[in-house]
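Hey, can you fold this one?
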Amino acid sequence: MPNTSPAGAPHLLLMSPEDNCLIARTALAAGDVVDIDGEPVTLTEAIPLGYKVARMALLPGDKVLRYGALIGSITAEVARGAMLHTHNLASDYLPTYTLGPDAHAFIGSGH
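Sure. Predicted structure:
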């Protein structure tokens, strides 16, 4: 049976008012109803504890803010209440932080 968010016990945490993502405070199941900005949203997928959830619908190229800071860019259309992760969010951190394809050139340059 789906969970609903009782008043005073939100399942999603807003870290900063300008954020467009929320953080799951508990593991959530597909079909759970959560409150996003005062409106009930039925989740279409399971969301693990600590994962990011879209506060609003997002389009490819949109920037994602957490703690009021840029953390990445959307790579695929995302519905409100959907999980944000590597399947739809690319990190905007420097390649040396993620050891992406450009990291070897940077590391090999002696920097």
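The radius of gyration is 16 Å. Let me know if you want another pass with a different chain boundary.
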